[in-house]
Amino acid sequence: MASKSAATPLARFSRLPLLTSATTTQQVPRLTARCCTTATTAQPSRTAAASQSRVSAPIRHSALPNIIGRDYSTSPISRKEAPPPSSSQPPPQPTELKPPTLYTYPEIASLSSSPDPSRILIDVREPSELLATGTIPSAKNIPIKSSADSFFLSPEEFEEKYGWERPGEDTEVVFFCKAGVRSKAAAGLAQQAGFGGRVGEYGGSWVDWEANNGKIEKI
């Protein structure tokens, strides 16, 4: 009886499949592949986390000021305004130049025949031109092409150079040339330099004077 009962448990185990060397060889690679796959899948996550930690670390510990969350004002920067001018000194007013007075042949002929100290007729052609053609009687000469700076000379320098006084504010200067181009430029320079108080120009100039058979003064 004892031998029968002892054989029964052994018979029970004999039904279980045995783990042979062939079975072990087939199952071990599968387990190894699963482990490798799991390790490979988890590796990028740890690598990305480490990389993110290295990138974000300089930002967290950066010496730059923390500008996030600050309340910046958008109001315009105030500027100091200039103090109002003193009541005792009125603000300077811009000087507006008046256009030159335009003269015709009859007016120039009258001025030439009856010279007026307060109105000076000025020929701005070059001396060589005056020698060739003559000039309008009583006219003075300031060659604008070669002596444009004459309008800016001091009264002493001007009188020393030309032998007559520099026109003041109470004097009108009337310019002419050959065809009205240089006389227009001379009128502009005279206004800029304060040469005379009033400025005029004979637009027809010498061409118009000759066409009207005006008197000629030889130089």
Automatic annotation (TrEMBL):
One cellular-component annotation, GO: mitochondrion
Residues of the Rhodanese domain: 115-218
Signal peptide positions (record): none
Keyword Transferase: yes
Claim: Transferase is one of the keywords in the record: yes
Pfam family, one: Rhodanese
Sequence ranges of Polar residues compositional bias: 43-55
Keywords from the named record: Transferase
Compositional bias segments (type: Pro residues): 83-94
Disordered: annotated segments: 39-101
GO molecular function terms noted in the UniProt entry: thiosulfate-cyanide sulfurtransferase activity
Entry protein name: Putative thiosulfate sulfurtransferase, mitochondrial
Native organism: Cyphellophora attinorum
Organism lineage: Eukaryota, Fungi, Dikarya, Ascomycota, Pezizomycotina
